[in-house]
Write the structure tokens for this entry.
Amino acid sequence: MSTLEKTETKVATKQAAGTQISGSQAVMEALIHEGVDTVFGYPGGAIMPIYDALYDYTDQLKHILVRHEQGGIHAAQGYARTSGRVGVAFATSGPGATNLVTGLADAMIDSNPIVCITGQVFASLLGTDAFQETDVINITTPVTKWNYQVTDANEIPSVLAKAFYIAKTGRPGPVLIDITKNAQLQLFDYLGYEECNHVRSYRPAPIVRKEYVEEAAKVINEAKKPFILFGQGIILGKAEQEFKTFIEKAGIPSAATVMGLSALETDHPLHVGMLGMHGNYAPNVMTNECDVLIAIGMRFDDRVTGRLDKYAKQAKVIHLDIDPAEIDKNVKAHVPVWGDCKETLPLLTELINKGDHVDWLNKFRELEKEEIKEVIHNELNPTSDVMTMGEVIKVLNELTGGDAVIVTDVGQHQMVACRYAKYNTSKSSVTSGGLGTMGFGLPAAIGAWYGAPERDVVAIIGDGGIQMTIQELGTIMQFGAKVKILILNNEFLGMVRQWQQLFHDRRYSFVNITSPDFVAVAKGYYIDGNKISERKDLKDALKTMLDHDGSYLLEVMVGKENNVFPMVAQGTSVSEIRLK
Amino acid sequence: MEKQEYTITIYTENSIGMIGRISGIFSRRKINIESLNTSPSEVDGIHRFTILITESEEVVRKLCRQIEKQVEVLKAYFNTNDELIWQEQALYKVPAEAIAEKVLVERLLRQYGANVVVIRNDYIVFETAGHREEIDRLTEELGKYSLIEFVRGARIAIIKDSAGFHTKLKQFEINEPAPDIVENEYLDQRDDVFTM
């Protein structure tokens, strides 16, 4: 049986191999073969043939018409993050394609598997400044893992197969395929669709070298004060169980990066919190106390390391990563373990001694007590009348039990949500980590819901970020994603204000942002909502939001000038983390 | 670490846009490319880039990892000048009368091993090849005799230790390559030459 016949029986396709079909129909066939069920997009002149073909595929492909192409790609990212599958976005040429750029950059830096398909002007018009022509390939080169312009329909099946293969394998990333209108219209002899599983110039899965695993195990077995940092690599590698088995056998305290959140449940006895600028006190301080630092699927971002020349200088560093370019990039690895952690972690687990580091773990817990006393207790149980962001998250945790998908935008509310939200299962945190894209939250939450419609999806967004992509309420209105929108309104661009307060002598330069009546705006989109400003209403309001069958917007007024602490100020060492 | 000349040799697929993808890796870090040459390689269908930059070894190693990470790049090597046989080519257009009248010019051209490419009534075109310093010196000398036009090509280089790319490519083309050919080589030679 040929590969072709195998795929033919696997999926219900409309076009048989050996017939003449259009390039646009070939695009649809490719999506069906790749198992795509949802596409986020926006039509336009240069992608009209693809939308025409889509018209015949709506029984198999759900198309969500977003209100802006940026919303489309962020939704595709949210979809990818909660489903673990490739997110797909359509956009037309010119402005449609340029509107994708922020999302591509976001997906690139946060390693989201995305395939974007953009329409392009007729090949005969390329380079003539034709209507809605932009040089999309050149514009998107630095923010894509791979991109390609198709001008001949014959290429479409193989190019799309390659696109999906590259997007989802190795270290995932966004791929953009730009298809000229003539190629979309062109009839060609369709030879069927074959999934791609090899590109000779691309090595997604390195062969693991046992000697380095052995060396790493030796270093871990000799360690007195080992410490694990875990990132999104665990989630992308679908290695949550392998990771848990590893840390439980080794008995090593483990801390998450922002992107690694939910890879290990928050309540796990070895979970010691979050790393980074607004992470927890203990993991930051202990980075400079440990003797062996084991980094798994993370990339030592500057928000994690603080000042590099004072970062973990006392420790031997073991770095497990699938991307060789990450090894030694920021922090020199004494033992590099290059490979997919799904493969390397079990090998390592087998070689390590069963250990417990109770005294060492207790040191983390002592520092945690200090953080609770100085920061957390007051944040979660404030004595003043104004509400804090932290207490909103606390009550939300009580109501969801930690089972919800928490999507955030960017800023103070993001850091507070990441610090205090409880996660029971993997793929429960969707946030813009590397790029810090304000406006990410609402569209990403829409996509997150389509990626996991059986779960509660709560989008926690600030009063600034919601106004960047608020038009996506229209997408919710039309297609009914049951997204719960929780706006934490402090009437400021809070994170910038915090920095202006701490580092710019309280010179509050253009951080004072006003807001519309969000509940009225939601109502305009036929979305129910509520606004509260008093603590006594908080629990009921959150419960109403969560219980509501459908999308709901809850605006909570919080303290105007609250700061997020602890904080590793820029240019300082992780061990110099401030509690106030 | 001290900066010095490094020659980066990259084997890529022959696809449109590779120059942009690769040059972007330098420009985003504000690193100046001193010369860039693209040409076919010893293997059919595989392109060879030769890029000259002046940087520290640490920076060059990281650049090469980023380059090799690109989907359509097969391999990236970096070498110092003593690990290479390298050359640059130059063309000179000199007024015919300068050659006819000034014996010195003829002697100069012989001394630098320049060859005549075109002879016309009004001018003569010479070519020469060699190391940068030699070409620079000849250019400076000819400048004294009303040099009309001058152009220098990018550096091309052969790696002394390289066994070529044929064997490696064969390994790339199959799904289960021999580990010593493709994977993790750099882990064995972390402080030598980076290769994936």
Summary: The beta strands of chain B are 4-13, 35-40, 46-55, 73-80, 84-95, 115-119, 123-130, 149-152, 156-159. The mean pLDDT of chain B is 85. Helices of chain B lie at 18-27, 57-69, 96-101, 103-111, 132-143, 166-173, 179-182, 185-188.
